[in-house]
Structures are given as C-alpha cells and as structure tokens.
Amino acid sequence: MSHIPANQGHYIFAGRHMREVQAKWDRLSMSDLVQIKTKAQLIERVQEQYGLPHEVAAQDVEIWNFGRRF
Questions:
Q1: Residue-averaged pLDDT of the chain
Q2: What is the pTM of this model?
Q3: Which domains occur in the chain, in start order?
Q4: In sequence order, what are the residues at sequence separation of 6 or more whose Cβ sits closer than 8 angstroms to the Cβ of residue 11?
C-alpha cells in the first residue's frame, strides 16, 4: 500500500473510485470524471449537473466520501 502525501490527500480519483462516483451520480460523464481532481471540483460538478445548492451538493459528497481512503 502506497503512502499519499498530505498535500495530495484531496485528490480523490483512481479507477475504482471513478466507477463508484459514476454509479452514485450518473449524470456525470466520463469526460467530467477525468477532469475532476479534487473533492471541491466534484462538489462543483455535482452542483452543476443536478442543479443543487452548494451546501446540498457538498453534504452529498461528504456523505459519499465518509470512510473512504484516497
């Protein structure tokens, strides 16, 4: 298991996680997913694609992200 430096801890995607994100938010295209590198970018894209207030999108992403290691 590799160690991720603390300053890179905000990067959330690897192959498995991309599939999990697309399963959760099916309006996100693969094009969207390959451009998303941080949790903040995921929140922004979920907010845009689903027409949600920022707070709701952020909470949805935080709930999804809980307990995952990236």
A1: 80
A2: 0.75
A3: 8-65 (1.10.1470.10)
A4: 4, 37, 38, 70
